[in-house]
């Protein structure tokens, strides 16, 4: 069991992992891409770094962390479950247990914009949390990959019928035999107060609910799964960089403030310091 | 008149200056040495930097800031005075006006430890602030350089007699004719409640007060001069990194927290962001 698994391999995640490693903790970083840094063509306001592209800086950070002996997996988180003494993290390639989690996933993005008006009114982002409310109903799930399949398998035993909407994405997984697939692009959601219909161009599908598991888990969907507080599109943390769930920390852009490498790196360091204290208390 | 003068050329000061420059402000950095970084033999937990000595990192930061067109003076602050619309900064080599000041001087050190028990009881760190209380008295001033001379010149018109104690340092400045000098090392301060005697080995000097202007202005003495709040040996700042005096900001080790490059660099960036907003409001 890892002392901590850090989700995200940008400046916040790598900085946090580096400090945790230095504190003698057993850590793993899981990252799916280079995040916002990938978009920064040139950075020249990060102390001591001169001019560097975001891409190169991100790779430099990862490479140096690996040279310090930090394990970094290029992988994607599909689900996080609570254990009695920590968390289980299911990824595309593997399965890990950890006493603590650090969410350093980058800026919280919105959910599926088209469905915004029906969030909590028939639209959900977490099968484990909300599946029960749709027992014996005919529902939809939007997605196309292993993250969607995980959510689908949670829902299948509960619901009467479930249709997969790939929203024009290539289906990446094999579905159970009894599941229908709609491959068209979704154009709108309709309903009086509660969601009633999913519209794909000139086709209309009646539904009693819809789960969104599109693309990959991100800060928004992870927060929904874990029951984390979100405010103004930022994960809410206390002075110790811990979320409302004990053992789940967050740092970097995901908690808001200045969206700068400098701030993310500092967040990572301070978060690590507090997480180390938390782990030491657990071990007492 | 500068928009801002940053005192300190370590990670916090340079990061702050870099951001201010990017915001289009007219800034100057004044630094007297490389501060705490000079003592760090090897740093390997600052994101993206690999292994580097504190000395090399500090020089790298300064060099890169200069390449962005930031003015950096290797100089020493002797005094800061309030102006109607800002501040006047007197240095060893020059004299500057600025609308705002950023104190990025590194960790607040204690005052003169030997005199600790008599602070506010006959021992003062600011001639401008407290000189008036020693009118027509026979007092001492401890120091040996231009910073001491500045304080001495403030006190001379007020007091009856003043003796310079160099505390075994080489006197670096020429003193007015009527000033006596004691070159011995100070061994203790004595008095019942209020300071009464300065002891140098087997010699005893009766005094009615003592000003300390030893070495160079540092965070502690600057804070005393400017009337800044100090708590637990840290300058007190609000969420905007501003001290209790409008227009005086602080960032890095001087405000406490984790004494790490990462945190100092982030402080500098966030402080700059808030200072920029402050300046823009002034210009309205």
Protein architecture, described:
The structure is a homodimer of 284-residue chains. With 284 residues, chain A is of the alpha/beta class. The first copy, chain A, folds into two domains: 2-109 and 218-283, FAD/NAD(P)-binding domain (3-Layer(bba) Sandwich); 113-212, FAD/NAD(P)-binding domain (3-Layer(bba) Sandwich). In chain A, 25% of the residues lie in helices and 26% in strands. In chain A, the strands form four sheets. In chain A, strands 1, 2, 3, 4, 5, 6 and 17 form a seven-stranded mixed β-sheet that branches. Chain A has a five-stranded parallel β-sheet with strand order 7-14-8-9-10, with helices on one face. The first copy, chain A, has a three-stranded antiparallel β-sheet with strand order 11-12-13, with no helix packed on it. The mean pLDDT of chain A is 94. The interface between A and B is medium-sized, with 33 and 33 residues.
Looking at the structure, the CATH topology of the largest domain in chain A is FAD/NAD(P)-binding domain
Q: What class do helices, strands and sheet pairing of chain A give? A: alpha/beta
The overall pLDDT of chain A, averaged over residues, is 94
Helix content of chain A: 25-40%
Brief characterization of the structure:
Two copies of one chain form a homodimer. With about 280 residues, chain A is an alpha/beta fold.
Topology:
2 copies of one chain form a homodimer.
Chain A: E1 2-7, H1 11-22, E2 27-31, H2 54-67, E3 71-74, E4 77-83, E5 86-91, E6 95-103, E7 123-124, H3 127-130, E8 138-142, H4 146-155, E9 161-165, E10 180-182, E11 188-190, E12 197-200, E13 203-206, E14 210-212, H5 219-226, E15 230-231, E16 234-235, E17 248-250, H6 261-283
Parallel strand pairs in A: 1-2, 1-6, 2-3, 6-17, 7-14, 8-9, 8-14, 9-10
Antiparallel strand pairs in A: 4-5, 5-6, 11-12, 12-13, 15-16
Helix pairs in contact in A: 1-2, 1-6
């Amino acid at each position: 069991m890892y002392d901590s698994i850090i989700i995200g391999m940008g400046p916040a995640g790598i900085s946090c992992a580096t400090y945790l490693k230095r504190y003698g903790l057993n850590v793993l970083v899981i990252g799916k891409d280079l995040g916002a840094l990938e978009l920064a063509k040139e950075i020249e306001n990060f102390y001591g770094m001169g001019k560097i592209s975001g891409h190169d800086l991100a790779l430099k950070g990862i490479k140096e962390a690996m040279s310090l002996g930090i394990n970094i997996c290029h992988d994607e988180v599909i689900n996080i479950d609570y254990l009695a003494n920590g968390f289980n993290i299911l990824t595309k390639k593997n399965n890990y247990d950890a006493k603590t989690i650090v969410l350093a996933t980058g800026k919280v993005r919105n959910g599926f914009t088209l469905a915004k008006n029906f969030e909590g009114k028939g639209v959900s982002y977490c099968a484990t949390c909300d599946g029960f409310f749709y027992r014996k109903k005919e529902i939809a799930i939007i997605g196309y990959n292993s993250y969607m399949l995980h959510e689908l398998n949670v829902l299948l035993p509960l619901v009467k019928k479930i249709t997969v909407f790939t929203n024009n994405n290539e289906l990446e997984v094999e579905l159970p035999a009894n599941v229908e697939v709609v491959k068209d692009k979704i154009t709108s959601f309709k309903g009086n107060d509660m969601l009633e219909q999913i519209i794909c161009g000139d086709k209309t599908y009646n539904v009693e609910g819809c789960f969104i598991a599109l693309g990959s888990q991100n800060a928004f969907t992870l927060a929904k799964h874990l029951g984390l507080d979100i405010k103004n599109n930022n994960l809410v943390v206390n002075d110790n960089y811990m979320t409302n769930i004990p053992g789940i920390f967050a740092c970097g852009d995901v908690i808001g403030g200045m969206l700068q490498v400098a701030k993310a790196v500092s967040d990572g360091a301070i978060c690590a310091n507090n997480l180390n204290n938390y782990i030491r208390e657990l071990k007492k």
